[in-house]
Write a structure and sequence with these properties.
By secondary structure, the protein is α/β, with parallel strands linked by helices. It is built from 17 helices and 23 strands. Helix 6 runs parallel beside helix 8.
């Protein structure tokens, strides 16, 4: 058996792993790279495997950095089954179409800029129709159900406690008369997340592939997060400002709604103060997803189920409003009274949140509250790290708003959560592969695991392959350039392309008879575009 790490390797997004056995080849996740321009370009690259060779896919959960390239896989010819929990299937039905819609809108906007600059136009990565069509491949399974997608592979989906339907995968592979068990943590949930159950305990594994998003830090006291949120809201409202919460449409949004309204007795004064302040969930996707939550009450933890059984649905209250149309969303920025706006995307890279940031970042009376992980290079990360001005829709916006971060709302386990979960294995894995984290988080967690649990760890690079038979990592033969080198290549090619376009325009306008020169420059431009296509298609 071999595992090749195709994404979320020394990075947080783009989760994708290729597993090869004697009889089968399958994928675990096929996520989108998110963050800087470099990550965006990774999405356009050819897949590092032959699509025809893949027998099936296992999807840990619906977040776009794990599922977001499935429509592209479908678009390029994949037609085999995708196994996921029923909750994940229901979420993907909305999320993949929404992602395709965002791809179209963002590409349209970028193409307008490219056209004005005389640059080559580009097709969207995929469309909403591609997202919809890909759903025919999904096959829903229950938690704790063991499936056999091929003769030599058995799989069990366990609750990861990260978001509705998220899974820890137990995978048994039979080869050469023996069985090997590999566990994929997926995104491991934070304990005591509202609505969701804690991550399932796994008894044993031969090998573990483990996420490390917060592997170098601890979340603040979970018990204080609701109170802190209430205090931030109260303080902001009292000075006449808006509370803007960039939040993933799935998971964090529903949990925030739950926290804002569930502890009426504990936070009676705060709730009474803000009860007349409208709370707007400005995301059509969040509206649909909240309906999916209603459909899967069996995934709720005991506390949330008790609320439902008592007739108090925790995702609904009198001053809560959902917006649907773009016109409704725009109207929120014309309101004169203070409001709370929860809007996607959680990393501020796309969607309606960018409009709300544009209208509120410059206001010293408003507050931006981050409640989830902000990947390196994203607008959310830059704001959180203290940039004084940011560019939104081509306009420089001064950051005057109060910036707050409540990490304990994160859906990811912190270092202690990860260590406690690994420690709970009765039979510890021989090796742990550290994935899905930034460099510092991976290194710190790796050392912690080795020091405390005495388990060997490996931090694979993108395209590295671990061969279970030889017990070694085959380092990728692909010579990967650094981020700086990639950016330099992009800029050099763009500059070369722009120069050629400019020269062609001059030649055509001034020397219309000189066909030879025009033909020569067109050939040069064609060469540049071919190189761009080879590098980033």
């Amino acid at each position: 058996m071999k595992i090749t790490f195709l994404g979320a390797a020394k990075e947080v997004t783009g989760s994708c792993y290729l597993v090869e056995t004697e009889k089968s080849k399958f994928l675990i996740d096929c996520g989108m790279f998110q963050g800087s321009e470099i990550e965006d370009e990774y999405n356009y690259q050819e897949f590092a495997f032959d699509i025809e060779d893949i027998d099936f896919m296992l999807l840990t959960h619906a977040h776009i950095d794990h599922s977001g390239r499935i429509p592209l896989l479908y678009k390029r010819g994949y037609r085999k089954k995708i196994y996921a929990t029923k909750g994940t299937v229901d979420l993907c039905e909305y999320m993949l179409q929404d992602s395709g819609h965002i791809q179209q809108i963002e590409n349209e906007w970028k193409n307008r800029k490219r056209k004005r600059a005389g640059k080559t136009l580009r097709m969207p990565l995929y469309t909403a129709d591609d997202g919809k069509a890909a759903m025919q491949l999904f096959y829903g399974v229950n938690y704790d159900e063991i499936i056999e997608p091929s003769d030599d592979v058995k799989v069990k989906f366990n609750d990861a406690g990260h978001m509705l339907g998220s899974s820890i995968l137990e995978i048994w592979v039979k080869e050469g008369g023996k069985e090997t068990k590999v566990v994929f943590s997926g995104d491991l949930g934070n304990k005591n997340i509202p609505i969701l159950r804690d991550p399932a305990i796994i008894d044993e594994a031969d090998y573990l592939v483990c996420e490390s998003t917060y592997g170098d830090r601890l979340h603040e006291d979970v018990g204080d997060k609701a109170k802190k949120l209430m205090e931030i809201i109260k303080k902001t409202i009292s000075r006449g400002g808006n509370v803007i919460i960039p939040s993933f449409a799935v998971g964090r949004t529903q949990e925030l709604l739950y926290e804002i309204h569930k502890d009426e007795e504990l936070y009676k004064n705060e709730i009474e103060y803000i009860s007349k302040v409208p709370v707007y969930v400005d995301s059509p996707l969040a509206t649909s997803v909240t309906d999916v939550f209603r459909k899967h009450l069996d995934y709720f933890d005991d506390e949330a189920r008790r609320y439902v059984e008592n007739g108090d649905y925790p995702l609904d209250f009198p001053n809560l409003h959902f917006t649907h149309s773009a016109e409704e969303s725009k109207a929120l920025n014309d309101l004169k009274e203070p409001v709370i706006i929860i809007s996607a995307s959680g990393m501020c890279e796309a969607g309606r949140i960018k409009h709300h940031l544009k209208h509120n970042l410059w206001r010293s009376d408003s507050t931006i509250v981050f409640v989830g992980y902000q990947a390196k290079g994203t607008l959310g990360r830059r704001i959180l790290e203290g940039e004084k001005t940011v560019n939104i829709f081509g306009e420089e916006i001064t950051v005057n708003a109060e910036i707050q971060n409540i990490e304990s709302f994160s859906g990811h386990a912190d270092q202690k959560g990860i260590m406690d979960w690994i420690s709970s294995f009765k039979k510890k894995p021989k090796k742990i592969f550290i994935v899905h984290g930034e460099d510092s988080a991976q290194k710190v967690l790796s050392e912690k695991i080795k020091d405390v649990l005495n388990i060997e760890t490996i931090i694979p690079s993108k395209y590295d392959t671990y061969d279970f038979e030889s017990d070694e990592v085959n380092v990728a033969e692909i010579a990967l350039p650094s981020d700086e080198e990639i950016l330099k290549q992009i800029e050099e090619l763009r500059a070369e392309n722009d120069k050629i376009l400019s020269k062609i325009k001059d030649i055509i306008s001034q020397n219309r008879g000189k066909v030879k020169e025009v033909g020569s420059d067109l050939a040069a431009m064609s060469d540049v575009l071919s190189r761009l296509k080879r590098r980033f298609s």
